[in-house]
Amino acid sequence: MYKSFLIKYAEIAIKGKNRYLFEDALVQNIRYHLERVEGTFHVRKENGRIYVDTEGEYDYDETVETLQRIFGIVGICPVVLVEDEGFDALAKVVCDYVDRTYPDKNFTFKVDARRARKNYPMTSMEINAAVGEKILEAFPETSVDVHHPEVMIHIEIRPMINIYSTEIPGPGGMPLGTAGRAMLLLSGGIDSPVAGYMVSKRGVTLEATYFHAPPYTSERAKQKVIDLAKKVARYSGQIKLHVVNFTDIQLYIYEKCPHEELTIIMRRYMMKIAEHFAEEGKCLGMITGESIGQVASQTMQSLAVTNEVCHMPVYRPLIAMDKQDIVSIAEKIDTYETSILPYEDCCTIFVAKHPVTKPSLKHIKKSECRLEEKIDELMQTAIDTTETILVDAE
Ligand code: ATP
Ligand code: MG
Protein backbone atom coordinates (compact mmCIF):
# COMPACT_ATOMS: atom_id res chain seq x y z
CA MET A 1 0.00 0.00 0.00
CA TYR A 2 2.97 2.33 0.33
CA LYS A 3 4.48 3.78 -2.80
CA SER A 4 7.02 5.96 -1.00
CA PHE A 5 9.31 6.13 1.99
CA LEU A 6 10.31 9.26 3.80
CA ILE A 7 13.92 8.94 4.95
CA LYS A 8 14.87 10.71 8.17
CA TYR A 9 18.45 11.63 8.94
CA ALA A 10 19.36 13.58 12.03
CA GLU A 11 23.03 14.16 12.52
CA ILE A 12 23.88 15.11 8.97
CA ALA A 13 21.28 17.82 9.05
CA ILE A 14 23.54 19.91 11.25
CA LYS A 15 26.67 19.98 9.12
CA GLY A 16 26.24 23.55 7.90
CA LYS A 17 27.63 24.25 4.47
CA ASN A 18 28.71 20.64 4.01
CA ARG A 19 25.18 19.48 4.45
CA TYR A 20 24.52 18.94 0.76
CA LEU A 21 27.65 16.76 0.47
CA PHE A 22 26.32 14.47 3.17
CA GLU A 23 22.84 14.42 1.70
CA ASP A 24 24.17 13.65 -1.77
CA ALA A 25 26.30 10.83 -0.37
CA LEU A 26 23.27 9.42 1.40
CA VAL A 27 21.17 9.60 -1.75
CA GLN A 28 23.91 7.83 -3.70
CA ASN A 29 24.26 5.12 -1.06
CA ILE A 30 20.51 4.50 -1.04
CA ARG A 31 20.55 4.15 -4.84
CA TYR A 32 23.52 1.77 -4.67
CA HIS A 33 21.95 -0.48 -2.05
CA LEU A 34 18.50 -0.55 -3.65
CA GLU A 35 19.97 -1.75 -6.93
CA ARG A 36 20.08 -5.19 -5.33
CA VAL A 37 16.42 -5.13 -4.34
CA GLU A 38 13.70 -6.34 -6.68
CA GLY A 39 11.67 -3.39 -7.96
CA THR A 40 12.16 0.05 -9.49
CA PHE A 41 13.11 2.85 -7.13
CA HIS A 42 13.59 6.57 -7.51
CA VAL A 43 15.53 8.41 -4.82
CA ARG A 44 15.12 12.15 -4.61
CA LYS A 45 16.04 15.03 -2.40
CA GLU A 46 13.44 17.68 -1.74
CA ASN A 47 13.52 20.58 0.72
CA GLY A 48 15.81 18.89 3.23
CA ARG A 49 14.01 15.60 2.85
CA ILE A 50 14.95 12.39 1.09
CA TYR A 51 12.23 10.28 -0.48
CA VAL A 52 12.36 6.84 -2.00
CA ASP A 53 9.54 6.41 -4.51
CA THR A 54 8.71 2.98 -5.84
CA GLU A 55 7.31 2.11 -9.23
CA GLY A 56 5.11 -0.94 -9.70
CA GLU A 57 5.59 -4.08 -7.64
CA TYR A 58 8.40 -4.24 -5.10
CA ASP A 59 9.38 -6.31 -2.08
CA TYR A 60 8.40 -4.21 0.94
CA ASP A 61 10.27 -6.25 3.58
CA GLU A 62 13.46 -6.46 1.58
CA THR A 63 13.32 -2.75 0.84
CA VAL A 64 12.94 -1.86 4.51
CA GLU A 65 15.68 -4.30 5.58
CA THR A 66 18.02 -2.82 3.00
CA LEU A 67 17.29 0.75 4.11
CA GLN A 68 17.95 -0.35 7.70
CA ARG A 69 21.55 -1.11 6.75
CA ILE A 70 22.34 2.28 5.23
CA PHE A 71 24.41 4.46 7.53
CA GLY A 72 23.09 7.98 8.01
CA ILE A 73 19.45 6.88 8.04
CA VAL A 74 17.76 7.45 11.39
CA GLY A 75 14.21 6.58 10.49
CA ILE A 76 12.29 5.03 7.62
CA CYS A 77 8.69 6.18 7.34
CA PRO A 78 6.38 4.42 4.90
CA VAL A 79 4.45 7.44 3.67
CA VAL A 80 1.35 8.23 1.64
CA LEU A 81 1.81 11.28 -0.57
CA VAL A 82 -1.25 13.11 -1.89
CA GLU A 83 -1.94 16.32 -3.77
CA ASP A 84 -3.70 19.05 -1.86
CA GLU A 85 -7.31 18.83 -3.02
CA GLY A 86 -8.96 20.54 -0.09
CA PHE A 87 -9.67 19.49 3.47
CA ASP A 88 -12.47 16.99 2.80
CA ALA A 89 -10.31 15.05 0.37
CA LEU A 90 -7.46 15.07 2.89
CA ALA A 91 -9.66 13.80 5.71
CA LYS A 92 -10.90 10.98 3.51
CA VAL A 93 -7.37 9.93 2.57
CA VAL A 94 -6.32 9.95 6.23
CA CYS A 95 -9.31 7.81 7.22
CA ASP A 96 -8.51 5.35 4.41
CA TYR A 97 -4.92 5.32 5.60
CA VAL A 98 -5.95 4.53 9.18
CA ASP A 99 -8.36 1.85 7.99
CA ARG A 100 -5.74 0.02 5.94
CA THR A 101 -2.84 0.44 8.36
CA TYR A 102 -4.66 -0.62 11.52
CA PRO A 103 -7.13 -3.50 11.04
CA ASP A 104 -7.73 -3.50 14.80
CA LYS A 105 -9.13 -0.09 15.68
CA ASN A 106 -8.80 -0.38 19.43
CA PHE A 107 -6.09 2.22 19.86
CA THR A 108 -5.50 5.74 21.08
CA PHE A 109 -4.17 8.34 18.69
CA LYS A 110 -3.16 11.90 18.20
CA VAL A 111 -2.95 13.89 14.99
CA ASP A 112 0.22 15.91 14.55
CA ALA A 113 -0.11 18.33 11.63
CA ARG A 114 2.70 20.58 10.43
CA ARG A 115 2.72 23.16 7.74
CA ALA A 116 5.94 23.59 5.81
CA ARG A 117 3.77 25.59 3.43
CA LYS A 118 2.17 28.38 5.43
CA ASN A 119 -0.40 29.30 2.78
CA TYR A 120 -2.58 26.32 3.69
CA PRO A 121 -5.98 27.73 4.71
CA MET A 122 -6.05 26.04 8.14
CA THR A 123 -3.59 26.25 11.03
CA SER A 124 -1.91 23.11 12.35
CA MET A 125 -4.15 23.15 15.41
CA GLU A 126 -7.26 23.36 13.25
CA ILE A 127 -6.11 20.45 11.10
CA ASN A 128 -5.38 18.37 14.22
CA ALA A 129 -8.84 18.96 15.64
CA ALA A 130 -10.75 18.53 12.38
CA VAL A 131 -8.94 15.38 11.20
CA GLY A 132 -9.15 13.91 14.70
CA GLU A 133 -12.88 14.38 14.66
CA LYS A 134 -13.23 12.69 11.26
CA ILE A 135 -11.24 9.68 12.48
CA LEU A 136 -13.39 9.37 15.63
CA GLU A 137 -16.53 9.55 13.49
CA ALA A 138 -15.30 6.90 11.07
CA PHE A 139 -13.90 4.53 13.74
CA PRO A 140 -15.78 4.92 17.02
CA GLU A 141 -13.55 2.27 18.70
CA THR A 142 -10.60 4.65 18.55
CA SER A 143 -10.00 7.38 21.08
CA VAL A 144 -7.80 10.42 21.39
CA ASP A 145 -4.90 10.61 23.82
CA VAL A 146 -2.83 13.75 23.39
CA HIS A 147 -0.21 12.79 26.00
CA HIS A 148 0.66 9.14 25.31
CA PRO A 149 -1.01 8.13 22.07
CA GLU A 150 -0.40 4.61 20.77
CA VAL A 151 -0.53 5.94 17.23
CA MET A 152 0.80 9.32 16.17
CA ILE A 153 -0.60 10.33 12.81
CA HIS A 154 1.68 12.81 11.12
CA ILE A 155 0.28 15.10 8.46
CA GLU A 156 2.84 17.35 6.85
CA ILE A 157 1.65 20.00 4.45
CA ARG A 158 4.43 20.30 1.87
CA PRO A 159 4.13 20.68 -1.91
CA MET A 160 2.59 17.20 -1.55
CA ILE A 161 0.82 16.25 1.68
CA ASN A 162 2.73 13.56 3.64
CA ILE A 163 0.78 11.15 5.80
CA TYR A 164 2.61 8.64 7.99
CA SER A 165 2.41 7.06 11.42
CA THR A 166 5.30 4.60 11.54
CA GLU A 167 8.99 5.30 11.87
CA ILE A 168 11.14 2.20 11.49
CA PRO A 169 14.56 2.79 13.07
CA GLY A 170 17.59 3.03 10.77
CA PRO A 171 21.17 2.33 11.83
CA GLY A 172 22.11 5.97 12.41
CA GLY A 173 25.71 7.04 11.82
CA MET A 174 27.08 9.00 8.87
CA PRO A 175 26.75 8.26 5.16
CA LEU A 176 29.53 6.12 3.75
CA GLY A 177 32.15 7.90 1.78
CA THR A 178 32.03 11.09 3.80
CA ALA A 179 35.02 10.39 6.06
CA GLY A 180 37.91 8.84 4.13
CA ARG A 181 39.31 5.29 4.18
CA ALA A 182 40.74 3.03 6.87
CA MET A 183 42.49 -0.35 6.90
CA LEU A 184 40.78 -2.99 9.04
CA LEU A 185 42.87 -5.85 10.38
CA LEU A 186 40.30 -8.54 9.83
CA SER A 187 40.71 -11.92 11.47
CA GLY A 188 38.20 -14.72 11.67
CA GLY A 189 37.22 -13.81 15.24
CA ILE A 190 34.21 -12.08 16.74
CA ASP A 191 35.81 -8.72 17.36
CA SER A 192 37.36 -7.38 14.20
CA PRO A 193 34.22 -7.53 12.01
CA VAL A 194 32.39 -5.57 14.73
CA ALA A 195 35.24 -3.03 14.88
CA GLY A 196 35.04 -2.57 11.10
CA TYR A 197 31.28 -2.16 11.23
CA MET A 198 31.52 0.48 13.96
CA VAL A 199 34.07 2.66 12.21
CA SER A 200 32.33 2.25 8.88
CA LYS A 201 29.18 3.50 10.59
CA ARG A 202 30.88 6.88 10.94
CA GLY A 203 31.06 7.14 7.15
CA VAL A 204 34.51 5.57 6.74
CA THR A 205 35.21 3.41 3.68
CA LEU A 206 36.85 0.09 4.60
CA GLU A 207 39.77 -1.81 3.22
CA ALA A 208 40.96 -4.96 5.02
CA THR A 209 44.02 -7.13 5.58
CA TYR A 210 43.96 -10.76 6.67
CA PHE A 211 47.05 -12.77 7.62
CA HIS A 212 46.90 -16.47 7.03
CA ALA A 213 49.48 -19.19 7.55
CA PRO A 214 48.95 -22.08 5.18
CA PRO A 215 49.22 -25.01 5.71
CA TYR A 216 48.79 -24.28 9.43
CA THR A 217 45.59 -22.45 8.67
CA SER A 218 43.18 -24.00 6.22
CA GLU A 219 41.53 -22.76 3.06
CA ARG A 220 38.30 -22.85 5.06
CA ALA A 221 39.70 -20.37 7.57
CA LYS A 222 40.41 -18.02 4.70
CA GLN A 223 36.94 -18.56 3.25
CA LYS A 224 35.51 -17.75 6.68
CA VAL A 225 37.26 -14.36 6.62
CA ILE A 226 35.96 -13.69 3.11
CA ASP A 227 32.47 -14.62 4.33
CA LEU A 228 32.83 -12.19 7.23
CA ALA A 229 33.96 -9.45 4.84
CA LYS A 230 30.84 -10.16 2.76
CA LYS A 231 28.67 -9.72 5.84
CA VAL A 232 30.34 -6.44 6.78
CA ALA A 233 30.08 -5.29 3.14
CA ARG A 234 26.30 -5.45 3.43
CA TYR A 235 26.72 -2.27 5.46
CA SER A 236 30.03 -0.85 4.30
CA GLY A 237 29.84 -1.57 0.59
CA GLN A 238 32.62 -3.34 -1.31
CA ILE A 239 35.76 -4.17 0.69
CA LYS A 240 39.19 -4.57 -0.87
CA LEU A 241 40.67 -7.49 1.07
CA HIS A 242 44.42 -8.18 1.10
CA VAL A 243 45.25 -11.78 2.02
CA VAL A 244 48.84 -11.96 3.23
CA ASN A 245 50.74 -15.24 3.48
CA PHE A 246 52.32 -14.92 6.90
CA THR A 247 53.69 -18.47 7.32
CA ASP A 248 57.39 -17.86 6.72
CA ILE A 249 57.48 -14.79 8.95
CA GLN A 250 55.72 -16.70 11.70
CA LEU A 251 58.04 -19.70 11.43
CA TYR A 252 61.05 -17.42 11.46
CA ILE A 253 59.91 -15.63 14.60
CA TYR A 254 59.14 -19.02 16.15
CA GLU A 255 62.65 -20.19 15.38
CA LYS A 256 64.50 -17.10 16.59
CA CYS A 257 62.56 -15.47 19.41
CA PRO A 258 61.42 -16.52 22.91
CA HIS A 259 58.09 -18.27 22.53
CA GLU A 260 56.35 -16.24 25.19
CA GLU A 261 57.03 -13.14 23.07
CA LEU A 262 55.86 -14.70 19.85
CA THR A 263 52.36 -13.24 19.76
CA ILE A 264 53.46 -9.72 20.51
CA ILE A 265 56.28 -9.76 17.94
CA MET A 266 53.98 -11.29 15.39
CA ARG A 267 51.39 -8.58 16.05
CA ARG A 268 54.05 -5.91 15.42
CA TYR A 269 54.87 -7.39 12.00
CA MET A 270 51.19 -7.65 11.17
CA MET A 271 50.74 -3.96 11.90
CA LYS A 272 53.75 -3.06 9.76
CA ILE A 273 52.53 -5.01 6.77
CA ALA A 274 48.95 -3.78 7.13
CA GLU A 275 50.30 -0.24 7.28
CA HIS A 276 52.14 -0.79 4.02
CA PHE A 277 48.86 -1.60 2.28
CA ALA A 278 47.09 1.18 4.17
CA GLU A 279 49.55 3.74 2.81
CA GLU A 280 49.27 2.30 -0.66
CA GLY A 281 45.47 2.60 -0.45
CA LYS A 282 45.62 6.18 0.89
CA CYS A 283 44.02 5.15 4.17
CA LEU A 284 43.98 7.65 7.01
CA GLY A 285 44.16 5.08 9.78
CA MET A 286 44.00 1.43 10.78
CA ILE A 287 41.31 -0.42 12.73
CA THR A 288 41.67 -3.42 15.05
CA GLY A 289 39.26 -5.34 17.26
CA GLU A 290 41.42 -4.99 20.35
CA SER A 291 39.88 -4.49 23.79
CA ILE A 292 41.81 -3.84 27.01
CA GLY A 293 42.62 -6.98 28.95
CA GLN A 294 40.80 -9.42 26.67
CA VAL A 295 43.92 -11.57 26.10
CA ALA A 296 47.63 -11.34 26.93
CA SER A 297 48.37 -9.40 23.76
CA GLN A 298 45.76 -6.80 24.70
CA THR A 299 46.97 -5.56 28.08
CA MET A 300 47.82 -1.88 28.14
CA GLN A 301 51.51 -2.82 28.05
CA SER A 302 51.05 -5.13 25.07
CA LEU A 303 48.95 -2.60 23.20
CA ALA A 304 51.63 0.04 23.74
CA VAL A 305 54.32 -2.26 22.34
CA THR A 306 52.18 -3.24 19.34
CA ASN A 307 51.24 0.36 18.69
CA GLU A 308 54.85 1.49 18.70
CA VAL A 309 55.52 0.26 15.15
CA CYS A 310 52.61 2.22 13.65
CA HIS A 311 52.91 5.65 12.11
CA MET A 312 49.22 6.00 11.35
CA PRO A 313 46.52 6.40 13.96
CA VAL A 314 45.13 3.02 15.02
CA TYR A 315 41.43 3.08 15.80
CA ARG A 316 40.23 0.54 18.35
CA PRO A 317 36.48 1.07 18.69
CA LEU A 318 36.07 -1.90 21.07
CA ILE A 319 38.80 -0.78 23.44
CA ALA A 320 36.51 -0.30 26.46
CA MET A 321 33.79 -2.77 25.61
CA ASP A 322 32.98 -6.02 27.37
CA LYS A 323 32.83 -9.21 25.33
CA GLN A 324 29.10 -9.64 25.79
CA ASP A 325 28.40 -6.19 24.36
CA ILE A 326 30.63 -6.98 21.38
CA VAL A 327 28.79 -10.27 20.89
CA SER A 328 25.45 -8.42 20.91
CA ILE A 329 26.60 -6.22 18.03
CA ALA A 330 28.03 -9.25 16.19
CA GLU A 331 24.61 -10.90 16.49
CA LYS A 332 22.84 -7.78 15.32
CA ILE A 333 25.00 -7.48 12.19
CA ASP A 334 24.86 -11.26 11.64
CA THR A 335 28.61 -11.95 11.80
CA TYR A 336 28.49 -13.95 15.04
CA GLU A 337 27.47 -17.32 13.60
CA THR A 338 30.30 -17.16 11.06
CA SER A 339 32.86 -15.92 13.60
CA ILE A 340 32.31 -18.87 15.93
CA LEU A 341 32.94 -21.50 13.26
CA PRO A 342 35.85 -23.52 14.62
CA TYR A 343 38.60 -23.08 12.00
CA GLU A 344 42.03 -22.24 13.36
CA ASP A 345 43.31 -18.75 12.77
CA CYS A 346 47.00 -18.08 12.49
CA CYS A 347 47.38 -16.69 16.01
CA THR A 348 45.95 -19.69 17.81
CA ILE A 349 48.42 -22.17 16.34
CA PHE A 350 51.67 -20.60 17.45
CA VAL A 351 50.33 -19.33 20.72
CA ALA A 352 52.56 -19.92 23.77
CA LYS A 353 51.37 -21.48 27.02
CA HIS A 354 52.45 -18.47 29.06
CA PRO A 355 52.66 -15.41 26.80
CA VAL A 356 54.10 -12.23 28.30
CA THR A 357 51.41 -9.95 29.63
CA LYS A 358 53.65 -7.00 30.49
CA PRO A 359 56.16 -6.85 27.68
CA SER A 360 58.81 -4.15 27.76
CA LEU A 361 59.55 -2.44 24.50
CA LYS A 362 63.28 -2.69 25.19
CA HIS A 363 63.12 -6.45 25.56
CA ILE A 364 60.95 -6.96 22.52
CA LYS A 365 63.21 -4.82 20.37
CA LYS A 366 66.19 -6.81 21.57
CA SER A 367 64.49 -10.06 20.63
CA GLU A 368 63.64 -8.64 17.24
CA CYS A 369 67.35 -8.04 16.59
CA ARG A 370 67.62 -11.79 16.12
CA LEU A 371 65.42 -11.46 13.06
CA GLU A 372 67.70 -8.99 11.30
CA GLU A 373 69.16 -11.39 8.79
CA LYS A 374 66.05 -12.39 6.92
CA ILE A 375 63.04 -10.40 8.11
CA ASP A 376 63.15 -7.60 5.51
CA GLU A 377 63.29 -10.08 2.70
CA LEU A 378 60.47 -12.15 4.21
CA MET A 379 58.30 -9.07 4.64
CA GLN A 380 58.93 -8.06 1.04
CA THR A 381 58.01 -11.54 -0.18
CA ALA A 382 54.84 -11.50 1.93
CA ILE A 383 53.89 -8.16 0.39
CA ASP A 384 54.72 -9.26 -3.14
CA THR A 385 52.71 -12.46 -2.89
CA THR A 386 49.66 -10.90 -1.30
CA GLU A 387 46.38 -11.75 -2.97
CA THR A 388 43.87 -8.93 -3.33
CA ILE A 389 40.18 -9.78 -3.47
CA LEU A 390 37.29 -7.38 -4.05
CA VAL A 391 34.58 -8.54 -1.69
CA ASP A 392 30.99 -7.52 -2.36
CA ALA A 393 28.00 -7.90 -0.09
CA GLU A 394 26.59 -11.41 -0.25
P1 ATP B 1 39.20 -11.18 16.85
O1 ATP B 1 38.00 -11.72 17.52
O2 ATP B 1 38.94 -9.96 16.06
O3 ATP B 1 39.94 -12.25 16.09
P2 ATP B 1 40.85 -11.65 19.12
O4 ATP B 1 40.13 -11.50 20.37
O5 ATP B 1 41.03 -13.01 18.57
O6 ATP B 1 40.16 -10.72 18.03
P3 ATP B 1 43.67 -11.11 18.78
O7 ATP B 1 43.87 -12.41 18.10
O8 ATP B 1 44.59 -10.68 19.85
O9 ATP B 1 42.21 -10.92 19.35
O10 ATP B 1 43.70 -10.00 17.71
C1 ATP B 1 43.50 -8.67 18.01
C2 ATP B 1 43.22 -7.92 16.73
O11 ATP B 1 44.32 -8.07 15.83
C3 ATP B 1 42.03 -8.48 15.97
O12 ATP B 1 40.82 -7.91 16.42
C4 ATP B 1 42.35 -8.08 14.56
O13 ATP B 1 42.05 -6.70 14.34
C5 ATP B 1 43.86 -8.25 14.50
N1 ATP B 1 44.22 -9.61 14.04
C6 ATP B 1 44.46 -10.70 14.78
N2 ATP B 1 44.74 -11.77 14.00
C7 ATP B 1 44.66 -11.33 12.73
C8 ATP B 1 44.81 -11.96 11.44
N3 ATP B 1 45.11 -13.26 11.32
N4 ATP B 1 44.66 -11.21 10.35
C9 ATP B 1 44.33 -9.89 10.45
N5 ATP B 1 44.17 -9.27 11.62
C10 ATP B 1 44.33 -9.96 12.75
MG1 MG C 1 41.60 -13.43 16.55
TrEMBL record:
<dbReference type="InterPro" id="IPR014729">
    <property type="entry name" value="Rossmann-like_a/b/a_fold"/>
</dbReference>
<comment type="pathway">
    <text>Cofactor biosynthesis; thiamine diphosphate biosynthesis.</text>
</comment>
<dbReference type="InterPro" id="IPR003720">
    <property type="entry name" value="tRNA_STrfase"/>
</dbReference>
<dbReference type="GO" id="GO:0005524">
    <property type="term" value="F:ATP binding"/>
</dbReference>
<feature type="binding site">
    <location>
        <position position="298"/>
    </location>
    <ligand>
        <name>ATP</name>
    </ligand>
</feature>
<keyword id="KW-0547">Nucleotide-binding</keyword>
<dbReference type="InterPro" id="IPR049962">
    <property type="entry name" value="THUMP_ThiI"/>
</dbReference>
<dbReference type="InterPro" id="IPR049961">
    <property type="entry name" value="ThiI_N"/>
</dbReference>
<dbReference type="GO" id="GO:0000049">
    <property type="term" value="F:tRNA binding"/>
</dbReference>
<dbReference type="InterPro" id="IPR054173">
    <property type="entry name" value="ThiI_fer"/>
</dbReference>
<feature type="binding site">
    <location>
        <position position="289"/>
    </location>
    <ligand>
        <name>ATP</name>
    </ligand>
</feature>
<keyword id="KW-0067">ATP-binding</keyword>
<comment type="similarity">
    <text>Belongs to the ThiI family.</text>
</comment>
<dbReference type="InterPro" id="IPR020536">
    <property type="entry name" value="ThiI_AANH"/>
</dbReference>
<keyword id="KW-0784">Thiamine biosynthesis</keyword>
<feature type="binding site">
    <location>
        <begin position="185"/>
        <end position="186"/>
    </location>
    <ligand>
        <name>ATP</name>
    </ligand>
</feature>
<dbReference type="GO" id="GO:0004810">
    <property type="term" value="F:CCA tRNA nucleotidyltransferase activity"/>
</dbReference>
<keyword id="KW-0694">RNA-binding</keyword>
<dbReference type="GO" id="GO:0009228">
    <property type="term" value="P:thiamine biosynthetic process"/>
</dbReference>
<keyword id="KW-0820">tRNA-binding</keyword>
<feature type="binding site">
    <location>
        <position position="267"/>
    </location>
    <ligand>
        <name>ATP</name>
    </ligand>
</feature>
<dbReference type="InterPro" id="IPR004114">
    <property type="entry name" value="THUMP_dom"/>
</dbReference>
<feature type="binding site">
    <location>
        <begin position="210"/>
        <end position="211"/>
    </location>
    <ligand>
        <name>ATP</name>
    </ligand>
</feature>
<dbReference type="Pfam" id="PF02568">
    <property type="entry name" value="ThiI"/>
</dbReference>
<keyword id="KW-0963">Cytoplasm</keyword>
<dbReference type="InterPro" id="IPR050102">
    <property type="entry name" value="tRNA_sulfurtransferase_ThiI"/>
</dbReference>
<comment type="function">
    <text>Catalyzes the ATP-dependent transfer of a sulfur to tRNA to produce 4-thiouridine in position 8 of tRNAs, which functions as a near-UV photosensor. Also catalyzes the transfer of sulfur to the sulfur carrier protein ThiS, forming ThiS-thiocarboxylate. This is a step in the synthesis of thiazole, in the thiamine biosynthesis pathway. The sulfur is donated as persulfide by IscS.</text>
</comment>
<dbReference type="Pfam" id="PF22025">
    <property type="entry name" value="ThiI_fer"/>
</dbReference>
<dbReference type="GO" id="GO:0005829">
    <property type="term" value="C:cytosol"/>
</dbReference>
<dbReference type="Pfam" id="PF02926">
    <property type="entry name" value="THUMP"/>
</dbReference>
<keyword id="KW-0808">Transferase</keyword>
<dbReference type="GO" id="GO:0009229">
    <property type="term" value="P:thiamine diphosphate biosynthetic process"/>
</dbReference>
<dbReference type="GO" id="GO:0052837">
    <property type="term" value="P:thiazole biosynthetic process"/>
</dbReference>
<dbReference type="GO" id="GO:0002937">
    <property type="term" value="P:tRNA 4-thiouridine biosynthesis"/>
</dbReference>
<dbReference type="GO" id="GO:0140741">
    <property type="term" value="F:tRNA-uracil-4 sulfurtransferase activity"/>
</dbReference>
<feature type="domain" description="THUMP">
    <location>
        <begin position="61"/>
        <end position="168"/>
    </location>
</feature>
<protein>
    <recommendedName>
        <fullName>Probable tRNA sulfurtransferase</fullName>
        <ecNumber>2.8.1.4</ecNumber>
    </recommendedName>
</protein>
